[in-house]
Specification:
It is a single chain. The protein has 301 residues and is an alpha/beta fold. It has two domains: 44 residues, no CATH class; 233 residues, Rossmann fold (3-Layer(aba) Sandwich). An eight-stranded mixed sheet has the order 6-7-5-8-4-9-10-11, with helices on both faces. Strands 1-2-3 form a three-stranded antiparallel sheet, with no helix packed on it. Helix 3 packs across helix 13. The longest helix is centred in the C-terminal third of the chain and has 16 residues.
């Protein structure tokens, strides 16, 4: 609101939409109303979204997190980013696992991409982020390896993400596992958080703890992805998906079956969604559709 210099106390969403249409159709009107052309935004009361009159609703930042390592978080981040790109969304995928970057392998992008720290420092722009060879609407920033999460300037990182929201439909942040500085850095700027867990007791316990940390941070849009699910193993453990959800204390957005093709595609430096028609790839496509609000049914418990 401060950018636009315009505020209507008590005005309803309909008035904002009418004004938005009015401004969209005439740049001269926008100038007369005092809208800065580079930062024009209207508050629409639609879940705290802002709307730029030239490109529509601002992008959404989604942090992909996990309580423990080995849950397949990075592979899912790459798969969901690819699936959103297939749905004609512009996506920026950022590896935030400082010092232990691996997202480029799952995405099928050659090493040597810019790090997000290069952009945060102002040495490069987001336009110079690596473009995926198979998904032209998907760009990628890797993680720096010469510093720790506590060395990242939080204000500079927040400004980079804010700029990215103006340029991309979705900004996916692959957070490091655990509840340390890396999670807090990426969760602080997130509009939504997808928390990845396995069905084993240790992973579920860590997911529950991570959910509690995120709740203390004021994050209420947290959804659970249960990854590497083997139905026979669940049966042998006498648990089901409902039990995992109850233990983690979070609503479900996706279930991804165990799939050896995830590892095979990474070894070939090929995106999982383009490697083969696999169960994990299909699950990533379903999650991407749910992120966009499409009515895609969840699996039976």
């Amino acid at each position: 609101m401060a950018d636009s210099g315009l505020f209507f106390p008590g005005a309803g969403p309909a008035l904002f939409h009418l004004l938005l249409i009015f401004v969209q159709n005439d740049e001269k009107v926008a100038k007369k109303l005092g809208f800065p052309l580079d930062n024009c935004a209207l508050f629409l009361y639609n879940g705290c979204k802002y709307c730029d009159w030239r490109r529509g609703t601002l992008g959404e930042v989604i942090t992909i997190a996990s309580g423990k390592g080995g849950t397949g978080k990075t592979s899912l981040c790459a798969g969901i980013a690819s699936a959103l790109s297939e749905l004609n969304c512009s996506v920026l995928c950022v590896d935030c696992d400082v010092g232990l970057r691996n997202l480029d392998i799952s995405l099928g992008i050659s090493d040597g991409a810019l790090s997000f720290l290069d952009v945060c420092r102002g040495d490069y722009s987001l336009e110079q982020a690596a473009v995926h060879p198979d998904y032209p609407k998907l760009r990628f920033l890797t993680a720096p390896i010469s510093c720790g999460p506590e060395d990242i300037d939080a204000d500079a990182f927040r400004e980079m993400v804010r700029t990215a929201k103006n340029q991309f439909d979705y900004v996916l942040l692959d957070a490091p596992a655990g509840v340390d500085a890396g999670l807090k850095l990426t969760a602080a700027v997130a509009d939504r958080i997808l928390l990845v867990t396995g069905a084993d007791p240790a992973a579920v316990r860590d997911a529950a703890r991570t959910g509690q940390v995120l709740e203390l941070m004021g994050k209420d849009k947290v959804r659970l992805i249960i990854n590497r699910v083997r139905r026979k193993l669940l049966g042998s453990m006498d648990i089901n998906l409902d039990d995992v959800m109850d233990e983690a204390g979070l609503p479900l957005i996706g279930v991804v079956p165990e799939d050896t093709n995830v590892t095979l595609s990474a070894s070939k430096r090929k995106p999982m969604l383009l490697f083969r028609r696999t169960p994990a790839a299909a699950a990533c496509r379903r999650i991407a559709k749910r992120i966009q609000g499409m009515p895609v049914a969840l699996p039976k418990k």
